[in-house]
Amino acid sequence: MRIGGVDFDERLIKALRKQSPGAQHEQPLVVFAGAGVSMGFPSNYPNFMGLTREIAKQVGYAWESEKEDIDRFLGRLDQNGIKIHQLVAKRLSSPTSKPTVLHENILMFFGSRDQIRIVTTNFDYHFETAASEVYGEGSAVFRARARTASRNLSMKKRHFRQKFSVAPDRFSGSTIC
Questions:
Q1: Average of pLDDT values for 103-119?
Q2: Per-residue confidence band for 31, with pLDDT thresholds at 50, 70 and 90
């Protein structure tokens, strides 16, 4: 099914019908959404590799993605005193970045604010903004601190990449809205 220029798998549409009012076997739908949702206009954010390339260029470090994975590269920058968290927070908190139509379309699948179940790995707050626009204020947001096995900056291998909250040097991500 095509909605707002996006093709959605028929299985997703069937799952939504099961949770609609009056459905016999209500099963809550949970959508897992990643960076692709925030890459289009007017969000215009990069994916993780693109973000890493931007940071490398900004700080003047060479990075060969074929020879060094993202985790090692960002860890190396961190060990060299580069403030990775602040750079990422600054890049992914652009005041000109706005939710995409896809953010809104995904939210509209749920039919009401109290049915929304989205787990996102995104750093931005576009689902929260879009939820307020689609359903009004008051959508519940649950945040979880990212956990790592070491103090090394290892964003990609975290269970979920987390969003930055008020203090950009600490992770505090939205997991469900």
A1: 86
A2: confident
